[in-house]
Amino acid sequence: MSRMTLTRYLIEQQRENDNIPSDLRLLIEGVARACKEIGHHVGQGALGGVLGSNETENVQGETQKKLDVISNEIMLEANEWGGHLAALASEEMELIHPIPDRYPRGKYLLLFDPLDGSSNIDVNVSIGTIFSVLECPDAGPPTEATFMQAGHRQVAAGYALYGPQITLVLTFGNGVQAFTLDRETFSFVLTNERMQIPEATAEFAINMSNQRHWQPPVQRYIDELIAGKTGPRHKDYNMRWVGSMVTDVHRILTRGGVFLYPFDTRDATKPGKLRLMYEANPMAFLVEQAGGEAIDGKVRILDIQPSQLHQRVPVMLGSKEEVERLKSYHA
Ligand code: AHM
Ligand code: MG
């Protein structure tokens, strides 16, 4: 069979199921092009002068890496002219970015973390780009309030993973598809038409160095996993923590597992580390579409009504059995 490129897959889906409007398809193709370009810069590393930090801080008060800034620019430039978007928002920009007057305004909103896992850039460990697409409900110029929609209203979401392979993982609410970049033809080729997370797992991902700051339900849950075969779970668990959410989630979509960045008591102003709108929501959409679950402890991530563009949430996602158990411990 001839290879199924991203373009062909999206056109055929639109034809067969009528579930991907053409301007949404073109928008996603624009995002995919931007990811290829970011992937190129990531691959250049020291040769491209892209490693190391900028002198700047983002709205979260984090020092920006050069690649954070480069990736943000690429996402803006690749996506603002297409005519499919009303506005964009990014982890690296305090305010939303309305489409400049010189371009036509479309009906979608794009949110993204242009370069996720920034602490891994300089050490040559996998990193990624995460994105989420919402509809723009009104015809007037969008404001931050226009973005304040719960995650279940996303019409598409995905990530690009810059690892040994460059992988693009997408959902339009009809399962999860993975595409691998063919580095010779520079096109994304469908390599997994339906990613599925096994219901049960024996692998967990959490930053153990924060253990003393966790709340009792997470303390209990992790204690029980670590107790292994002789503990209440009666099996041995394995641990992985890459420190790039994209990579940790990709592993879970590929072979199962559970990922936690829970609420902790380190900083009263931060209810978790990860950001709802461009990290937790798109990942929760993908995980649910692959048969898993995603909660903040008590509530389904996709049902959280956002109140701020850069708000943080605790995140627990992955194999159903584990997330259900976490929910029961928090109840
Ligand atoms: P970033 O968007 O600034 O890169 O931060 C998000 C990342 C996630 O990819 C990852 O899961 C987490 O931060 C790791 O945090 P920690 O360094 O506390 O383990
Ligand atoms: Mg991030």
Description:
The protein is α+β, with helices and mostly antiparallel strands and 331 residues long. It has 2 domains: 187 residues, 2-Layer Sandwich (Fructose-1,6-Bisphosphatase, Chain A, domain 1), CATH 3.30.540; 128 residues, D-Maltodextrin-Binding Protein, domain 2. Helix content is 29%, strand content 24%. The strands form 4 sheets. An 8-stranded mixed beta sheet has the order 4-3-5-6-7-8-9-10, sandwiched between helices. It starts with 5 loop residues before the first helix and ends with a helix. The relative contact order is 0.13. The structure holds 2,5-anhydro-1,6-di-O-phosphono-D-mannitol (AHM) and magnesium ion (MG).
